[in-house]
Amino acid sequence: KHTASRRLILPCRAALEKATGLLREDGLIILSHPLGRGFLRRLHEKDPIRVPHLLPDAAMLTSLTRFLPLDLEYCEGLTSEEDPFIVVLRRRPVAVMERPLFLRGKVASGFGRGSKKLGFPTANLPSSEFANHLEDLPVGVYCGWAVVEYSPGETDRTVYPMVANIGYSPTFEGQENTEKIVEAYLIGYNPRAASVEEMSAGDFYGKPLRLLITGRQRPELKFDGFLELRARIATDVEDAAHASEAIEPIRALKDHPLLRCAEEDLPLFVGVDQVSQDCCWREDFLDVFLMEAESRAE
C-alpha cells in the first residue's frame, strides 16, 4: 500500500524542468484542472501532505518557466480561481541562462574547418586564456552577443548576434580540440578585408573579441558526417538569430555596457580578479546584467 509519505513529489520547478527535458522541439506540456485553481487551493489547505502544490497564477508561471526553453502557447484560468485551468507550454530551441557569461580575449587561429569545410567561419577563444574558468561550463551550443575590437578607442562598434559551440568538436574525429574552446560564429558579420580569400576566413584573428553568452541551445553532439553537422549549424544559427529578437532578456542585453564601453572601463564591470593579460571574464546573475543594461539605456 502506498502512502503519501512514501511518494516521490518533485518541487514544481524540478518537475517542469524534468518534463521539458523529455520534449522534442515544439513539443507541448499541458497543465490542466477542470475545477480550477481555487478548488486545488482549498484541497491543499485541508491536506497539504496529499496535495503539496498549487496551480500557478500568472506570476508564478513566469517564475517557473523563466530559465526553461518554454513559451506560453495558450492559457485559461490564470487570473480566476474558479474557472477551469489550462496552460499549454511549447518547447523552444533556446533557454535563457540564469547566469550569463562575459568573455573578452584575442581571437586565436583554429583548424580553419569552420570556414573551409562548413561555411561558418568562427572566432576561437581557448578556455586556457580564462584561467580555466570555463571548465565547469557544460559543453554545448550557446547564443548571445559579440563585438570585434578593430582598434582601440572605437565607439561605434557593431554588436552582432552570435552562436557558439563551447567544447571539443567531437565530429572532427582525430582532430578534436585538445582543450575546451569557444568557437563563435558572428551572425551578419561583414569582415573588413581586402580580398575574397580574407573575407571567407574573416579578419578577426588576433583581434580582441567580446562575447556575452546569454542563452543555451543544446548539448554538444557528435554527428555522422560534415553534411549533417553543417545542416545542424545552420539550424543553430537560425535559432540564435530568432532568440536575439524574440526572447526579451536576450534582446535587452545587446545594450550591456560590457559590449559597448571603452577598453579602459572594462575593469569597472569585471573586477581585477577576473582579468588575465589581454583577457577578462565575468559571470553573474541575469537580473544584475539586465539592471546594468537598463542603466546604460537611461
Q: Please, could you describe this protein's structure?
A:
The protein is α+β, with helices and mostly antiparallel strands. It has 2 domains: 4-91, no CATH class; 95-297, Elongation Factor Tu (Ef-tu), domain 3 (Beta Barrel), CATH 2.40.30. Helices cover 29% and strands 26% of the residues. The strands form 2 sheets. The chain has an 8-stranded antiparallel β-sheet with strand order 5-8-7-6-9-4-11-10. The protein is elongated, with a radius of gyration of 22 Å. The termini are far apart. Mean pLDDT is 84; it is low at 1-8 and 193-201.
Give the gist of this structure.
The chain is of the alpha+beta class and 298 residues long.
Topology:
Layout: H1 12-21, E1 28-33, H2 36-46, H3 58-65, E2 70-76, E3 85-91, E4 95-106, H4 113-116, E5 123-126, E6 140-148, E7 160-167, E8 181-186, H5 196-201, E9 208-219, H6 226-246, H7 248-252, H8 257-260, H9 267-270, E10 275-276, E11 279-283, H10 286-297
Antiparallel strand pairs: 1-3, 2-3, 4-9, 4-11, 5-8, 6-7, 6-9, 7-8, 10-11
